[in-house]
Amino acid sequence: MKPTRAQLDELLKIVAATEAREIDCEEFLARVCPVLDALEPGQEVPPELGLISQHLEVCGECREEFDALVDLRLQGGDES
Fold this sequence. Notes:
- By secondary structure, the protein is mainly α.
- It has one domain.
- The protein contains four helices and no strands.
- The protein has helices at residues 5-16, 25-38, 50-58, 60-74.
- The longest helix has 15 residues, at 60-74.
- The protein is globular and about 45 Å long.
């Protein structure tokens, strides 16, 4: 099956965002909770948090997880 133009564009975007030092999904998940705690509602991850921001760019699964955690936090789900 031949890839669609949209699939190729997404692949090129990911390749362009590739860095010499990257974190994997496990390391991302270990680092993301403190980042979420520091963010104001609606705020994106600042670029200065490079490895986390970069991973969000290239990993759709972690981006979905991150967005779900942000939504949960905004709904008050972070109460302990």
